[in-house]
Amino acid sequence: MSVTAGRGGGLLVAGTTSDAGKSVVTAGICRWLVRKGVKVAPFKAQNMSLNSYVTREGAEIGRAQAMQAAAARVEPSALMNPVLLKPGGDRSSQVVLMGKPVGELSARGYHAGRQEQLFGTVTECLEELRRTHDAVICEGAGSPAEINLRRSDIVNMGIARAGRLPVVVVGDIDRGGVFASFFGTTALLSPEDQELIAGYIVNKFRGDVSLLEPGLDMLRDLTGRRTFGVLPFTHGLGIDEEDGLRVSLRGAVRESVVASPHGADVLRVAVCAVPLMSNFTDVDALAAEPGVVVRFVDRPEELADADLVVVPGTRGTVRALAWLRERGLADALARRAAEGRPVLGVCGGFQLLGERIEDEVESRAGVVEGLGLLPVRVRFAAEKTLARPVGTALGERVEGYEIHHGVADVHGGDEPFLDGCRVGAVWGTHWHGSLESDGFRRAFLRRVAQAAERAFVPAPDTSFAALREEQLDRLGDLIEEHADTDALLRLIEDGVPAGAPFIPPGAP
């Protein structure tokens, strides 16, 4: 791949809206390029997400960027997501800079000045990646035409202009109005920003592409910009999500394989959809198992037929605890524990299953009584724990990652469970991602099935890592088969094309 001396090529994948498919397209381009022998890295200047990941050097970044790094077959690093915003209560977010938390800010405070202060860090990270890679595929956020935020933008046209990156805009045609969205997005940008818009990618198209072609021709006549691909609607192609209630891998597994139970029974898993739920991707590995059915719930009666209830992580442990009590879910969990029916708490979910929480950091609520299902007392520390632990549990090797302010004092239990413990059929741990360890997941599910009195048997050959690779290859195939890859490669190598016309009215 020919690039400017000392500086790799690049591309920014923007979107007409949030959830238009930017993350998927970025990952797909990364996987397509690396299969061509291109040394490529993903980049997102600023991400807002409660789903995060810990790199090997102990930096916290968005999970989508970690998965894009996996698509590019490179080790994820803080350079790939220098600014991460983790929403909390009272319209504020924790600001994570270069993988470390640096404080809480309201949206107004962030956009009023702090965001612009971070611009230098963001551009330095992008340039470092471009120095060390043949290509950097950047992902925008929301829409580049959010004109109320353009002055302080560091993730869309701000970073594109600083890096002289060509921009491809992705639109979700399944929502409708994609042509108006493409035209309107372009026409609301300033002349300087419009110069960088190279063209468009249509996402989630159903039907005969020939029926769409007249519209694509008219769009080119109206904007002077081409469409680089029409990607078909394909179920289960999402990567680890930024936010939302969806089991990201489950769709891919269920549609690519007839996943009948390996034993006589299925195993039903209910995940409590607590407020500010974080890293709910932990249950993807459960959903990948043949015969395991995962659903999110918010009512106590929905726990009645569950063989396992998972209380996931949350950015608001005390708030989630109050929510469980208000909805009657706390009482339902207590009844399950008394009856010996399985419950798993992860991170914030583990903390609220304990006896007491002392929080002067996250909620500043002081001392709050927990559900009392585990012999654990939690004190929130100002410094966040960010780690990639490795250990053994249930006779199997386990890898995970930790992201929490709460420090747990475990003072009992029937047996240790990673960094937590088990009492009866209630398990708790701070470790995210532990269920991705295949042997441990199977051992845990055997224990759950035994306690639930289900004739469920984990399949002996399910490899979560292999399923994830299969999914990333499908994303690469999507780009390779349905996009003009020759044109995309020229765009990445040569930069912003000349001569794109201005579309009035432009930014006000």
Helix content: 25-40%
Sheet having the most strands:
7 strands, mixed
Spatial order of the strands forming the largest sheet: 15-13-16-18-27-26-25
Uncertain segments are 243-258
- Overall pLDDT level: 92
Rounded to the nearest angstrom, the distance between the terminal CA atoms is 39 Å
Q: Can you count the helices?
A: 16
Identify the overall geometry: globular
Given the helix and strand composition, which structural class is it? alpha/beta
User: What integer value in Å does the Rg equal?
Assistant: 24 Å
Q: Percent of residues in beta strands?
A: 25-35%
Q: How many E strands?
A: 27
Tell me about this structure:
- With 508 residues, this protein is an alpha/beta fold.
- It contains 16 helices and 27 strands.
- The longest helix has 19 residues, at 464-482.
- The protein is globular and about 70 Å long.
- Catalyzes amidations at positions B, D, E, and G on adenosylcobyrinic A,C-diamide. NH(2) groups are provided by glutamine, and one molecule of ATP is hydrogenolyzed for each amidation.
- Residues 12-244 form the CobQ/CobB/MinD/ParA nucleotide binding domain.
- This is Cobyric acid synthase.
Short précis:
The protein has 508 residues and is α/β, with parallel strands linked by helices.
Keywords, separated by commas or semicolons:
single chain; alpha/beta; seven-stranded mixed sheet; six-stranded parallel sheet; globular
Provide the fold topology.
Elements: E1 9-15, H1 22-35, E2 40-43, E3 46-48, E4 52-54, E5 60-62, H2 63-72, E6 83-87, E7 92-97, E8 100-106, H3 107-117, H4 119-132, E9 135-139, H5 157-163, E10 167-172, H6 178-187, H7 191-194, E11 197-205, H8 213-223, E12 226-232, H9 250-256, E13 267-272, E14 277-278, H10 284-287, E15 292-297, E16 308-311, E17 313-314, H11 317-326, H12 329-339, E18 343-346, H13 348-352, E19 356-359, E20 366-369, E21 376-387, E22 390-393, E23 396-399, E24 402-410, E25 415-417, E26 420-423, E27 426-429, H14 438-452, H15 464-482, H16 485-494
Parallel strand pairs: 1-9, 1-10, 2-9, 3-6, 10-11, 11-12, 13-15, 13-16, 16-18, 18-27, 19-21
Antiparallel strand pairs: 4-5, 6-7, 7-8, 14-17, 19-20, 21-24, 22-23, 25-26, 26-27
